[in-house]
Amino acid sequence: MTRRRVRRLAVFRLERLERRRPRRIVRAVYCGVNSFVSLVILAVVAEYSHAPFLFPSLGPTAFLLFHAPLAASASPHNTLLGHLIGVLAGWFALAVTGLLAVRPDLEDVDARRALACGLALGLTCGLMPLLDAAHPPAGTTTLIVALGLLRTPDHLVVLMAAVVLITAQGFVINRLAGLPYPLWRLPSAAAEP
């Protein structure tokens, strides 16, 4: 990359913008614009692939990535593993309750579906701290799966691909903004017991 291009990118560094404008305004615009751009990109991928690259838990994931990018819960480690735990726990709960092949019905939730949701959320909420991968939006992901909204292996692969894409977007955007966003996890998070 030429020096001129690097200088042009420096305009987008948060630190530089915060010297000229109120920090709160800069951070609000940064979070809002980048969350919007990230989800629009995923929506375009969903439209052209006809696959579920857009689902509710990506909203709070985008918020964490751009509002609190240096929080442990926003690190790639926590984002990717948290959602993976949610997907696997949701799928496991569907399998245990015999609902893998049952279409979702949000208007008539029966005891098996309620059990699947409770089991999935309990496993997700228990495993994330155990594996040091807390990412609150994964609680939504596990319910999406346990409710049967995304339940086929193809859907689950696409779901995780969408999480990888938004995490990669967060990495690139936060680094371009001059933030020390981690490649995998925050140094302090890796050192915690």
Q: Nutshell version of this structure?
A:
Helices cover 68% and strands 0% of the residues. By secondary structure, it is an all-alpha fold.
Characterize the structure shown.
The protein has 193 residues and is an all-alpha fold. The protein has one domain. 68% of the residues lie in helices and 0% in strands. The chain has nine helices and no strands. It has helices at residues 3-10, 14-20, 23-49, 58-67, 76-96, 111-130, 138-146, 153-176, 187-191. Helix 2 (14-20) packs across helix 3 (23-49) and helix 5 runs parallel beside helix 7 (138-146). The termini are far apart. It comes from Streptosporangium sandarakinum. Residues 24-182 form the HPP transmembrane region domain.
List keywords for this structure.
single chain, mainly alpha, 193 residues
Alpha-carbon distance between the two ends = 40 Å
How many E-type strands?
A: 0
Amount of helix: 55-70%
Number of helices: 9
Helix vs. strand class: mainly alpha
Succession of helices and strands:
HHHHHHHHH
Number of domains: 1
Which spans of ≥5 residues are poorly predicted at pLDDT below 50?
Answer: 189-193
Largest sheet: none
What would you report as the Rg, rounded to the nearest angstrom?
Answer: 18 Å
Shape: elongated
User: Please, what is the average pLDDT?
Assistant: 92
The fraction of residues in strands falls at under 5%
InterPro entries: HPP (IPR007065), TM_HPP (IPR058581)
Organism: Streptosporangium sandarakinum
Protein name: CBS-domain-containing membrane protein
Keywords: Membrane, Transmembrane, Transmembrane helix
